[in-house]
């Protein structure tokens, strides 16, 4: 059986890489794919379906909200757990009601909350 894939997307390379390393320590039995843009993430998700995705909202090109909608359309039968992550709390509150994301977290990420959400998803 293959490892469950967790997708991490942020145009800030250091933030994305650091979050990926941090989560790998908590979930050694999961696979991680770190992408630095929405299009790259969507292309990867096409070849390896993620069970969860942590998406930065403000990225050039395909932003996190557009990516979340695209992932929901691609995996209508069973979409991944979608977690919005942004330092823009106003934007987070604006998108809360649109249904694109399952959870909304502000940067810097509350690691315990993020780990808890991912642990629940991986257990189901």
Describe the 3D structure.
With 124 residues, this protein is α/β, with parallel strands linked by helices. It has a domain at 30-109: 3-Layer(aba) Sandwich (Rossmann fold). Helix content is 44%, strand content 22%. The protein is built from five helices and five strands, in the order E-H-E-H-E-H-E-H-E-H. Strands 2-1-3-4-5 form a five-stranded parallel β-sheet, sandwiched between helices. Helix 1 (13-26) links the parallel strand 1 (5-9) and strand 2. The longest helix has 14 residues, at 13-26. It is globular. The protein starts with a strand and ends with a helix.
Question: Nutshell version of this structure?
Answer:
The modification 4-aspartylphosphate is found at residue 56. The protein has 124 residues and is of the alpha/beta class.
Question: Characteristics of this structure?
Answer:
single chain; alpha/beta; Rossmann fold; globular; Response regulator; CheY-like_superfamily; phosphoprotein; Sig_transdc_resp-reg_receiver; Bact_response_regulator
Ordered list of secondary-structure elements with their pairings:
Layout: E1 5-9, H1 13-26, E2 31-35, H2 38-47, E3 50-56, H3 64-74, E4 81-86, H4 89-95, E5 103-106, H5 111-123
Helix pairs in contact: 2-3
């Amino acid at each position: 059986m293959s490892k469950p894939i967790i997708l991490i997307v942020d145009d800030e390379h250091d933030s994305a890489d650091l979050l990926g390393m941090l989560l790998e320590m908590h979930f050694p039995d999961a696979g991680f794919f770190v992408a630095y843009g929405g299009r790259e993430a969507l292309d990867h998700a096409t070849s390896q379906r993620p069970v969860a995705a942590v998406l930065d909202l403000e990225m050039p090109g395909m932003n996190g909200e557009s990516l979340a909608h695209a992932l929901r359309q691609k995996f209508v039968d069973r979409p991944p757990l979608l977690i919005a992550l942004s330092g823009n709390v106003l934007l987070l509150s604006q998108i809360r009601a649109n249904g694109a994301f399952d959870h909304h977290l502000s940067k810097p990420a509350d690691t315990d909350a993020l780990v808890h959400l991912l642990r629940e998803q991986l257990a189901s």
